[in-house]
Write a structure and sequence with these properties.
The structure is a homodimer. Chain A is mainly α. The first copy, chain A, has a single domain, classed as Winged helix-like DNA-binding domain superfamily/Winged helix DNA-binding domain (Arc Repressor Mutant, subunit A), CATH 1.10.10.10. Chain A contains three helices and two strands. Chain A has helices at residues 5-19, 31-38, 42-54; strands at residues 58-61, 65-68. In chain A, helix 1 (5-19) crosses helix 3 and helix 2 crosses helix 3. The longest helix of chain A has 15 residues, at 5-19. Chain A is globular, with a radius of gyration of 12 Å. The structure holds a DNA duplex.
DNA sequence: CCACATTTGTCCGTATGTATC
DNA sequence: AGATACATACGGACAAATGTG
């Protein structure tokens, strides 16, 4: 196991944000969509979300979705 | 539900670190011990750990334990 | 070296709550 | 009222590292 699945997911999404494929204000794919895409369980997706959330890159809102924050594309 | 259990656990441990009750290099109670103390499942403890880890306050090592990092007591 | 217990790391499936549409 | 979607939590399973005997 070179790297944990949730870290891979986190890094993948982080790169998408850094690259601009995901821009501030954008809504990430839904939970189920991410589970399907990465072929992982909710646990993995949630852990990845928690990491990115701690980094201040994303912000989830109940009933709506997970959104890329403003500071996500900045240099910090 | 005022606050999620895993956030309460994270905050409690964070305060212990900030207060100096847990010093850099110290080993946190074991997983099971924390589960018992907070009367929570492993999921809650793990989520709290993930948060504190992302904050750079702690660092876990398989087979050993979870330790308070150096920068934990600093002003950052 | 091997066996064992301990402890963290990772992941799964499910259930329930809550907010939005 | 119902569907969708995130948030939280539970409990269990197996892997990997460590220390001890």
């Amino acid at each position: 196991m070179s790297e944990a699945a949730y870290l891979q997911v986190a890094r993948d999404l982080r790169e998408q944000i850094r690259d601009g494929r995901l821009k501030p204000g954008d809504k990430l794919p839904s939970f189920n969509a991410l589970c399907a895409h990465y072929e992982a369980s909710n646990t993995v997706i949630r852990a990845a979300m928690l990491v990115l959330k701690a980094e201040g890159l994303i912000d989830g809102r109940q009933g709506k979705g997970v959104y890329v924050t403003d500071r996500a594309s900045k240099s910090n």
